[in-house]
C-alpha cells in the first residue's frame, strides 16, 4: 500500500547538491559572459541575463518544492494525459508560433514563452516508462517495437515540422533506455553506422561507399553469421545503408534548411562560410584555447564578454568557463556532469519499480546527449544546432524543464520503498 508521508521521504541529497552546484556555476558564468566593467551592474539586476536567470532559479526551486510535496502517483498514473497535452502543444507550435531563425519553436503567452518540445521530452519519457512497465515490455516482438517507437516518433515528427533538428537528435537518447530494457543493440549500431555514412557521403564518392558496404556485408555474412535470420538481417542492413547513402543529397537539399546545411558543411571544412557559422566555431575554439591551464580569471575573459563568441550565454556558455577558468575549471565542470549522470544511473538501478528505472534512464540519456552535443558544438565536433548545456546555459524554460525532469526522478526515488511493484 502506498504511504503519503511527504516529510519522511528519502531524498537523494547528493544528486540535489550536484544539481545546485551546476546551476550556481551556470548563473555565475552567465554573468561573466556579458560582464561590462564600465557599467557597474549588479549580478542580480533584473535587466540582465544573470538577473533573469536568478529569477528562473527561484521559480525552479518553487516548482521543485511542489514536486517533492505532491503525491508521486500523479507521475505514474497520468503520463498518457501529459503526453496528449504535449502533442497538442506541439501542434499549436506549428500552427501559431512565430518563425524565428527559420524555425517555429516557441509558444508565446504575453511576456512568457516556452518550447513545447521541452514538455514533450518529459511527457514522452513518462509515457514510455508507463507503457514499458504496465505491459511488461521485453522488446522481443514486432508489436512491442511498433508501439514503443510510435510513442517516440510522433513528437519527433511534429518537431521535425518546426523544424528543430537538435531536439530530434536528443530524442534519439531514448534508445539508451530501450537498450537497457532489452532492445536488440543492432538497431543502435545501425543508427550509428547511418550517421557515419551520412558524414562520409558528403566527402567520399557514393560509388566507393556503396561498394565498401557490399564488401563488408558479404564478409560478415560469410565469416560471422551462422543462421539464415542473421544473414538476412545483415543483407537488409546493407540495402538500407546503401539506400541511405543514395538519399543523402535529397535529405541535404530538400529536408534540411540552408542554415542547417551550412552548419554540417562547416563541421567538415571550417573554411566554408568563414564569416558566418565558420566564424562562430573558430572564435569558440580560440576562447577555449586561450584559457590555458588555469584560465584568465573570473570576469577577465576577453573573447566572450567582447562578443567575439556568439550566443556566449546560451549555446556557447562552455567557452566562458574554459576561457576564465582554463582546463582545470572545464575539467571540474565535466566531473560534475559525469558524477550527476552516474548518480542518476545508480538511482535507476536500485529501483524496485520498473517504471522509475526506465524513466531514470530516459533522464540520464537526455542529459547526456545535451551535455555531449553542447560540448561538441563548442569544439567543432558537432554542428551548431542550438542545444543548451543542462542547468548551466541561460534560459528560463530550459532550466525549469530540466529541473522538473530531474526532480520527478528524485521524487519517485524517494518513495522507492513505498511504491507497489507489479
Automatic annotation (TrEMBL):
Keywords: Cell membrane, Cell shape, Cell wall biogenesis/degradation, Glycosyltransferase, Membrane, Peptidoglycan synthesis, Transferase, Transmembrane, Transmembrane helix. One of its GO terms (cellular component) is plasma membrane. One of its GO terms (molecular function) is lipid-linked peptidoglycan transporter activity. GO terms for biological process: cell division; cell wall organization; peptidoglycan biosynthetic process; regulation of cell shape. The keyword Membrane applies. It is a multi-pass membrane protein. It is found in: Membrane. Its main location: membrane. The chain crosses the membrane at residues 12-34, 54-70, 77-97, 144-161, 182-201, 207-224, 231-248, 327-346, 358-385, 391-412. InterPro entries: Cell_cycle_FtsW-rel_CS, FtsW/RodA, RodA/MrdB. NCBIfam families: RodA_shape, rodA_shape. This is Cell wall polymerase.
Amino acid at each position: 500500500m502506498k504511504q503519503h508521508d511527504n516529510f519522511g521521504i528519502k531524498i537523494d541529497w547528493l544528486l540535489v547538491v550536484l544539481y545546485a552546484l551546476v546551476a550556481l556555476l551556470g548563473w555565475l558564468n552567465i554573468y561573466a559572459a556579458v560582464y561590462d566593467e564600465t557599467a557597474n551592474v549588479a549580478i542580480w539586476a533584473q535587466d540582465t541575463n544573470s538577473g533573469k536567470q536568478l529569477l528562473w532559479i527561484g521559480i525552479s526551486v518553487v516548482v521543485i518544492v511542489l514536486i517533492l510535496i505532491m503525491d508521486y502517483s500523479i507521475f505514474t498514473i497520468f503520463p498518457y494525459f501529459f503526453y496528449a497535452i504535449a502533442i497538442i502543444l506541439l501542434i499549436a507550435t506549428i500552427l501559431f508560433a512565430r518563425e524565428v531563425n527559420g524555425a517555429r519553436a516557441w509558444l508565446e503567452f504575453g511576456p512568457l514563452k516556452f518550447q513545447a518540445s521541452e514538455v514533450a521530452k518529459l511527457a514522452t519519457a513518462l509515457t514510455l516508462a508507463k507503457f514499458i512497465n504496465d505491459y511488461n515490455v521485453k522488446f522481443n516482438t514486432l508489436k512491442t517495437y511498433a508501439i514503443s517507437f510510435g510513442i517516440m516518433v510522433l513528437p519527433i515528427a511534429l518537431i521535425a515540422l518546426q523544424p528543430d533538428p537538435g531536439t530530434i537528435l536528443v530524442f534519439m537518447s531514448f534508445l539508451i533506455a530501450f537498450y537497457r530494457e532489452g532492445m536488440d543493440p543492432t538497431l543502435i549500431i545501425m543508427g550509428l553506422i547511418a550517421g557515419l555514412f551520412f558524414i562520409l557521403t558528403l566527402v567520399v564518392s557514393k560509388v566507393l561507399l556503396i561498394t565498401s558496404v557490399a564488401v563488408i556485408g558479404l564478409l560478415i555474412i560469410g565469416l560471422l553469421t551462422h543462421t539464415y535470420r542473421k544473414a538476412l538481417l545483415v543483407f537488409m542492413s546493407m540495402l538500407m545503408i546503401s539506400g541511405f547513402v543514395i538519399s543523402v543529397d535529397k535529405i541535404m537539399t530538400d529536408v534540411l534548411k540552408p542554415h542547417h546545411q551550412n552548419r554540417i558543411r562547416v563541421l567538415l571544412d571550417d573554411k566554408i562560410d568563414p564569416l558566418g557559422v565558420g566564424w562562430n566555431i573558430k572564435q569558440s575554439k580560440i576562447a577555449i584555447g586561450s584559457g590555458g591551464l588555469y584560465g584568465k580569471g573570473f570576469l577577465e575573459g576577453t573573447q566572450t564578454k567582447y562578443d567575439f563568441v556568439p550566443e556566449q550565454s546560451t549555446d556557447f556558455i562552455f567557452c566562458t568557463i574554459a576561457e576564465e577558468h582554463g582546463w582545470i575549471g572545464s575539467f571540474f565542470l565535466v566531473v560534475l556532469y559525469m558524477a550527476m549522470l552516474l548518480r542518476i544511473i545508480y538511482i535507476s538501478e536500485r529501483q524496485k519499480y520498473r517504471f522509475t528505472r526506465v524513466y531514470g534512464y530516459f533522464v540520464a540519456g537526455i542529459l547526456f546527449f545535451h551535455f555531449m552535443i553542447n560540448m561538441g558544438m563548442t569544439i567543432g565536433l558537432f554542428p551548431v544546432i542550438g542545444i543548451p548545456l543542462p542547468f548551466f546555459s541561460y534560459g528560463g524554460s530550459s532550466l525549469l524543464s530540466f529541473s522538473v525532469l530531474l526532480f520527478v526522478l528524485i521524487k519517485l526515488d524517494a518513495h522507492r520503498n513505498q511504491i507497489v511493484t507489479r
